[in-house]
Specification:
46% helix; 0% strand; mainly alpha; 3 helices
Length: 120
């Protein structure tokens, strides 16, 4: 069977499955009529008094904006890439991991990356 024939067969099987799945609903709808009950506008059991908004627009905006800022702040901190923790106990072994100042001498206009102001 060719590739095109297989695709047509699968489409026909899909359509058949949809009709078989819809068949019980169609039979029940045609054979039996659903129970109908009227709704009356003056029925006191479904009548509720009109109430205005329970939350003002200002309160809703303030809570939404505050929660969005807090969530974004904490989620971004959670996914922030951090350097690996050093578990070595010997300080001489840790020396190469420490942040060193830039060897370029600082000047008043530019400074260096770590704001190092001491002698180089």
């Amino acid at each position: 069977m060719t590739e095109q024939g297989k695709k047509l067969l699968l489409i026909a099987v899909d359509i058949l499955c949809v009709f078989v799945a819809a068949l019980p609903s169609a039979i029940l709808t045609l054979r039996f009529s659903p129970y109908q009950r009227g709704i009356y506008c003056d029925d006191q059991s479904i009548d509720y008094p009109y109430r205005r908004d329970t939350i003002s627009y200002g309160t809703m905006a303030a809570v939404t904006i505050t929660c969005s800022i807090v969530i974004v702040r904490h989620v971004s901190d959670f996914f922030k890439q951090r350097p690996p923790r050093c578990t070595l106990a010997d300080p001489e072994e840790n020396e190469h991991l420490e942040r060193k100042p830039n060897p370029q001498p600082p000047d008043a206009q530019h400074g260096n990356h770590y704001s190092y102001r001491g002698a180089v």
